[in-house]
Amino acid sequence: MARNLEVDLLKTLKKELRNALGGCGSTLIDDTSNHAGNWYAIIAQEQTELDVSGCTVDIEDFPSSTTDIIIGAGVVLYGNWSAIELNSGSVLALETC
User: Strand 34-44 and strand 91-95: pairing?
Assistant: First the structure.
């Protein structure tokens, strides 16, 4: 039983490490279209304005659909993103494994 637990833990660590390093791929989003996918983080490549009404993300206290967000270059937002839409700028969306 302890062996199974160790194997499960190692599998989980491997998956999380691959996620953290972007090992499952990424998507560069640099337009104002709505993008659907399965991402665990977005990294602003420049000052970027998120169109909150076009974003679907599982983040506690994410702003209402009436407030867009401006994030600075290099800022990372973690969450379970399934839709991303920008008003300006660009982000690198890291895909979930």
Answer: antiparallel
